[in-house]
Design a protein that fits this description.
There is one protein chain. The chain is an alpha/beta fold and about 240 residues long. It has a single domain, classed as 3-Layer(aba) Sandwich (Rossmann fold), CATH 3.40.50.1820. It contains seven helices and ten strands. The protein has a six-stranded parallel sheet with strand order 2-1-5-6-9-10, with helices on both faces. The chain has a two-stranded antiparallel sheet with strand order 3-4. Helix 2 packs across helix 7. The longest helix has 16 residues. The protein is globular and about 50 Å long. The two termini are about 20 Å apart. About 35% of the residues are buried. One of its GO terms (cellular component) is nucleus.
């Protein structure tokens, strides 16, 4: 008797979320994946934020509600200066979870979790040497860690500390799916487009999707889209990458 291995995806939430909330926010995609017999695992980031860690003002009542709901989670502390970002705990948390619960066929990240997912995707075989490349990586409202390029006025570059982390492997077979909202104020579309282009440039497909790199734009803001007309083609690409029926 043969047993069928169920494909597994690891989900990484955004800033001021947790695994439970991300599960709810991504319910449209999650339910369609479940119908396709794909397992979705959601985990919490290692950072418990305090009010002083926020990059914006909020009142005490709202902050108390956030803490009570255990939504004061993140993968790393926010900073406008990319070279100051420290992902050590974030990467250790994810790689330890993968070692204990994997292997995983793919990873799905939103916002901060999408930036981290991009790095994990690029480095998975180094971070967990026994782990194969992901079959699929879904980057929702993702971004890279950039700074002004002193050699090209008005242009950006990946900050040196994370240049290797955001450099796609040229021989990678992982399908990369980018999703972003044109009305996103938290992570403007141009930041996700910059990240998209890093991958497109790595295989010479700037200006067009390829078989490996797919881009889905929606009219919304900083969110995981749940409308069927937007997410159905996304899920079809995921299922295709996983080889699921």
């Amino acid at each position: 008797m043969t047993t069928t291995t169920i494909p597994k995806l690891l989900f990484l939430h955004g800033f001021l979320q947790n695994g439970k909330v991300f599960s709810e926010k991504s319910s449209g995609i999650r339910k369609l994946l479940k119908k396709a017999n794909i397992q979705c695992d959601y985990i919490d980031g290692p950072v418990s934020l305090e009010k002083k860690d926020l990059p914006f003002e909020t009142d005490e009542e709202r902050w108390k509600a956030t803490v009570d709901a255990q939504m004061n989670k993140s993968w790393f502390y926010h900073s406008e200066i990319s070279k100051e970002l420290d992902l050590t705990d974030a990467i250790n948390t994810v790689t330890s979870y993968i070692k204990e619960n994997g292997p995983y066929d793919g990873i799905v990240g939103f916002s901060q979790g999408a930036a981290l997912s991009t790095i994990i995707t690029n480095k998975i075989t180094e971070l967990v040497p026994s782990h194969p490349e992901f079959k699929v990586s879904v980057i929702i409202s993702g971004y890279s860690f950039t700074e002004a390029d002193p050699e090209h006025e008005g242009q950006l570059r990946i900050t040196e500390r994370y240049r290797d982390s955001f450099t796609p492997k040229k021989d990678s077979k992982t399908k990369i799916i980018f999703i972003y909202g044109t009305s996103d104020q938290a992570v403007p579309a141009k930041r996700t487009q910059y990240l998209c282009n890093l991958f497109k440039e790595s295989e010479g497909t700037v200006g067009a999707d390829s078989e490996r790199i797919k881009v889905f734009e929606h009219p919304g803001g900083h969110m995981v889209p749940n409308k069927k007309d937007i997410i159905r083609p996304v899920v079809e690409e995921i299922i295709s990458a996983l080889g699921s029926n």
